[in-house]
Amino acid sequence: MGNSGKQQLLAFLLIMVVLFLTPKYMEYISPAQKETPSELALEDSSYYNNKTTEVLNKNTIHPVVDNINSYNEVVFFIETPLYIAEVSSIGGGTIKSFTLKNYISGYSDEGVFIENGFVSILLPDDNQCSPCLALRDNSNNDVLFFDKPFFTNIKNGERFLLDSGESHTFYFNFNDSMGSGVSNSLTMYGSFYHFDYEFNVESLKEGDFTKEIAWTKSLRPTEKNQDYDVAESGAVIWQVDEHDNILQNSSDKIYLETLDGRTDWAAIKSKYFIASIIPENKGIYGSYEAENQVFANRKVTPGYKIYIGHHKNDKILSGKVYLGPQDIVEMKKTGSNLEEAINWGWSFIRPISKLILKLLKYLHNPFSDFTVNYGIVLILFAFIIRVFTGPLTKKATVSNQKIQQLQPHIKKLQSKFKDDPMKLNQETMALWKKHGVNPLGGCLPIVVQMPLLFALFVTFRTTIEFRGEPFILWITDLSQPDIIFNLPFHIPIYGAHVAILPLLMGITMFFQQKFTSASMDSSQKPLMYIMTGFFFLIFNSFPSGLNLYYATSNILNIVQQWNLKKTTTISNR
Predict the structure, then answer these.
(1) pTM of the predicted model as reported, rounded to 2 decimal places
(2) Which domain holds residue 423?
(3) pLDDT (mean) for 449-456
(4) Nearest residue to 391 (alpha-carbon basis) of 339, 448, 438, 323
């Protein structure tokens, strides 16, 4: 195997191994993610003293809010062209359920996956703080949630319909027998996934506590594949132009962690959906924690909680809550950079990932009244990428072909100078220079394309644009594997289903490597074919859109290499 062939194989294996690890362990490609191991916390008692939050239950007497007036809970409904929200007077307007009308397939309250139903994105639990006001005791770090019913003039069961461009403000008040009070207004919009909150705490009695806006209601799983749904969830806090993430991928609890500093927003997210608090006056810290939730028969259902702390003297705590899809167009309507919560990959490929998504969205809707099927878009995109990477591929292919044709000459030199390595190296370099061969020519183009390959992979796997988008025939969702039938058993790595596009991708990869392996020793080729088979197995669980793109790209690469093989010659002198 020539040096160039070895370098190409090593580069290819590196790329594919990283791509294999990425979907299952998304924390490796997402910057600044971390999981707090509970075992480590148990060994360090100071960890609990500094980090743990003991949540007070509803019957706890607190010096600031005691002898609470007893208001009855009022539940009402808001419907817009985008969603149906069930809102409770508890906490001054907490969201009990939130159903998106433009997205389908998800889990029912009982944990049954429904293909054709609207997506409901909140877990059906008893948590009543989404969002709500919370008070954190500075002496012991305990927290009291204002999760009691507030007074409102809204009738129980009342329904409100908001058309595009319309809005409505709902008012809530809370008072105790000591004259301490809190009010909140909730403004919902017919055209946006975000809504406004404004907590007035001027009448709240002073005490040694910090006021927080909290969100503790968990997001509901929405995807069939539990591993990907869990691995691509998380809690995110954005502070001073950078973010910090946590990921709960096991049933272990992640204890409260507080990050001091200006906090622009905090969010919890699933694979495709997100809930975020965006305060108007930036917070002085952000906190998050996680605890596994019980939902259907799933082993892991992440339950994230987020908190944003405010200055003690702040009397009005206002801001926005975004609750909906991780769609950059909709998220930007909040006036923040919430789209940074999307996993764009490592910092050096984030700009490439964003550019790729912009191009894909433009190809999908090039004119206001005309859209292109996303399957066609992916095929067109493969052609566009081939236009840019074609010269690099040509350079690598020509270099490999020249090295292959020079192998007889190199073998003669190896036989002639077998006892003089220095002379062999000099003569080999002279031979390459004579025929214009760069020994790194086959490897360098691959290295140059690596950021693009990573960005493509991240974009296809994490953006919501492909979710529920059909292509042709059996390919009904480009964000899911194109399964034609399920197996009664599970095959390690491969899975428990059969999909067509991974098979096509594997076949095209095999023929593509038939060209690129021309300069390899015959003893090295079986390893390459084994790796091709291995990637066919792991791609079986990848989204059909990703496999469609890679299969198309492989076909274009085969055509280019076949054409180059016919036209590239070298003198045998």
Answers:
(1) 0.80
(2) 3-23+367-567
(3) 82
(4) 448
